[in-house]
Amino acid sequence: MTRGATPTEADLIRAIAARTRITGRTPRMSLGIGDDCAILRPPRGHELLVTTDFSLETVHFRRDRHTPESAGHRCLARGLSDLAAMGATPLAIFLSLALPPELLRARNGQPAWRDRFLDGLLALARKHRVPLAGGDTAASPATPVPGTTTGLALADIVALGTAPQGRALRRSGARPGDALYVTGALGGAAAELAQLAAHPRRFARLRAPADNSAHPHLFPQPRLTVGQWLAQPGRASACIDVSDGLSTDLHHLCEASHCAAVVEVVRLPIHPLGAATKDGLNLALHGGEDYELLFTAPTSVRIPRRIRGIPVTRIGTIRRPRRNQPIVSLLTLNQQEQPLTARGWEHFRTTPF
Ligand SMILES: [Mg+2]
Q1: Which of 20, 139, 283, 309 falls between 20 and 30 A from 302, CA-CA?
Q2: How many angstroms is it from 52 CA to the middle of ligand 1?
Q3: Which pLDDT band holds residue 348 (cuts at 50, 70, 90)?
Q4: Looking at the whole model, is its pTM more than 0.85?
């Protein structure tokens, strides 16, 4: 591309194609970017799992708060977390990007927003050995929107995974008497999001943290290896990822399984970032985007305290639904039961944006 010329769609595709060499090829991808379709080769006897997630500027990230690397990382993390929730092994990802012209150009000696976004996305892809196998690009209109000087950046990720036939974990398999568990800690992402909204400049230089657990909002870690462990025969009975908040996602799991559940406050693993605030318990119950796994297993199954290096905590029990009883209850520290209403997503995620 000539210096100063307006980057074209072809330049963007070339830039992405050049970057895919970073993620490398896998035996499961016969053909990647460069033809009309990618050709994938799922293992024999496996099913294909497909999930798609939109990342919209001002809804899922803000250019004045998230670094491009964080926006790229988060875009892929959402898709990979859905694969993790079903115990799938990632096969390939597809990325569609619509960017205003401003984001395609290097500025003030800094790489273009586009390149830094791809840095963040591809670093996570490399970590989980999943190739970027294709996608699409388009120019986003250069019409100013609030908080930007140009049009909006939009990214859509499609993530494909495989699981042995009939083994993928679902939300619908929980049974009364099953124990309820969660990986990692809860409320950290919402706590960090509040910090980000209050002090965006504190995070402006953050590209990729050495300690992944330290930045649960900016760089959430999908629990793929834990999901794969849980999907082995005779382990988890149901699973969902905590994207909208524990209270909301547990309702989803209970509704799909036609069950009720009780969560014990005393057992909840509250993330240190949440625990450092006055609101740690609420953040753990309703704060979204932790991307931990919430799963159930019969009490006869031994679930270790750590799976693939990730802490696992029993937080409650699945039970039979009863008329006049809430679907999800909370057992408080003084042994009182109260309804736990689903107010994850709307309560927290819309506020700081
Ligand atoms: Mg999900």
Answers
A1: 283
A2: 10
A3: very low
A4: yes
